[in-house]
Amino acid sequence: MSEAATFHGQARARRGWSLRFYIMEVCLIALILALFLLAPGFGSSANLLNVFRSVSMLGIIAFGMTAVIISGEIDLSVGSGVALAGCFAAWAVELLTPVTGDVAAVLLGALGAVAIGMACGLFTGTLRAQFNVPSFITTLGLFTALRGAANLLTDGFPLASFPGWFGFFGNGSVYGIPFPVFVFVAVFAGMHFLMSHTAFGRAVYAVGGNAEAARLSGIWVGGVKTMTFVITGALTAISGLLIASQIGSGTGSTAAGLELDVIAAVIIGGTDLFGGRGRITGTLIGVLFLGFIGNGMTLMNVSDYWQYVVRGGLIVGALLLNQVLERR
């Protein structure tokens, strides 16, 4: 083969790689431009800040879910985990405030909620590593059990035991930027560094790509997968605390169906549902894409039912697009 033919072949390969790598970025920009033209009030600063606030809770979990899916697993319990985190914190505050005061009660309740989230992740990972129980089955069980536990703690009613200042974390702003956005950005930066620049991140990709090859190369496959669940459990609890702060109570019905939006954001961002491939930056694009399109459809008075249809179509379309570009 001549040098010219080789050069043109490499150039075509680079263009194809670039197209696949940045296709969702292009789609997001096109969506934003369309919404500026079609959705009344979309471009206002108040509306955009509201979108960023609402997607922050979703994105915090989605970054952890990206690691889980890249490792070849899945977690269906995050929505129920959000509800349990908020309910446990509210229950702890009600129980401890007369003894410790509200500041210590909130701190202990928040730490307890995060610990429970991590314990759930450890439970799922341990069953997968030690007994080869599929994470789909384990987290499906937790999906029901955690929701039930949340309602047991609150007797099925919203538990509004938080002090007034706690609402700042979900509703407050710093220099005009919603506080949850700062948490969202910090989690994004931390997960991006973890997955792109550490040995653990490389191990996650290796385990998801070929678990047996990773094991033979000395990687503790079960430990890596367990750690992704633990991280996601902690991030789920943090998101649950922010949502509890936003609504002012712990509620057992909070975040129903959130796990589907989280998984959708990860898939739309280009992460392979079968593991081994994905980007934290891609998930960021997926989260923003879902947030903007949901907000735009609301501003255009699109029925909630049609919004569900569009979201489902986006998931299927993103999977199909990734498969087509992969084959090319």
TrEMBL record:
Record-annotated membrane-spanning stretches: 21-39, 51-70, 77-97, 103-124, 136-154, 174-195, 216-243, 281-299
Pfam families linked to this entry: BPD_transp_2
Species this chain originates from: Ancylobacter vacuolatus
Coiled-coil zones: none
InterPro entries given in the database record: ABC_transp_permease
Subcellular location: Cell membrane
Membrane topology reported for the UniProt record: Multi-pass membrane protein
Keyword Transmembrane: yes
Name of the protein in question: Ribose/xylose/arabinose/galactoside ABC-type transport system permease subunit
PANTHER family registered for this protein in UniProt: ABC TRANSPORTER PERMEASE PROTEIN YPHD-RELATED (PTHR32196:SF21), ABC TRANSPORTER PERMEASE PROTEIN YPHD-RELATED-RELATED (PTHR32196)
Predominant location category: membrane
Alphabetical UniProt keywords: Cell inner membrane, Cell membrane, Membrane, Transmembrane, Transmembrane helix, Transport
Repeat in keyword set: no
